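ok trying this again, last paste got cut off
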Amino acid sequence: MSLEELAAANKRTVGTKQTLKALERGVVKVVYLAKDAERHVIDPVLKICETKNIPIVWVDNMKLLGETCSIEVGCATASITEE
């Protein structure tokens, strides 16, 4: 999965809280994580992805991930969902 797919996705989450909620509902196809995000923020997402075998795409930094999601601030996590 590429950043272009995330940018074009009709159904996605932006931010750790939304991504965690979607993971709990079981609707996430792929998760995007920023390499420069603080570990305590992304670790819960990582653990769930490993448990549920959800693919992870690492993004260079939070700024790039935020821009890809069309927000003006950086974000640590995002995902493409099925909903």
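PB: full thing came through this time. The helical segments are 3-8, 16-25, 39-52, 62-68.
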